[in-house]
Specification:
The protein is mostly helical. The protein is built from 7 helices and 2 strands. A two-stranded antiparallel ribbon has the order 1-2.
């Protein structure tokens, strides 16, 4: 793509004045770098991804409020983690973290275990236990 034809479409990146570095050809046909604010297909894909993440967060919050899941599920979604990533952050086997997703099991966790989750989510134990019900 020629440098002067690099897309400069409005995107979620432009809200924060972020530009992406791309390779393009200059007037002599040599490769060079240039900045782009975005292009429509990427903007659509990014927007769809953000919408999906927001839906997952809302679903997780509702599960916690309904007593179907522990707050760990909600904070995991807020922090864009999956079971494998969270397991590595807290240092527990995946099956054990999954077990902590149950509200009845979560209610019996010690402060030592809760602190590991709180550290992973960068919240206090009190926020981990109570912030969703407010």
């Amino acid at each position: 793509m020629e440098k002067d034809k690099v897309p400069q479409d409005q995107s979620n990146l432009t809200k924060n004045n972020v530009k992406e570095l791309l390779y393009a050809t200059d007037e002599n046909g040599n490769y060079t770098t240039t900045l782009s604010t975005g292009w429509e297909p990427k903007t659509i894909a990014l927007s769809n991804s953000i919408d999906e993440i927001n839906e997952r967060i809302a679903d997780a919050k509702q599960q916690v409020l309904n007593g179907e899941a522990s707050p760990i599920v909600y904070f995991m979604e807020i922090n864009k983690m999956d079971l494998t990533i969270l397991s590595s952050y807290v240092g527990f086997w995946k099956w054990r973290v999954k077990r902590h997703f149950k509200p009845s099991v979560f209610a019996t966790l010690s402060d030592k275990i809760l602190q590991k989750y709180a550290d992973a989510f960068e919240v206090s134990i009190n926020e981990l236990k109570n912030s969703i019900t407010k």
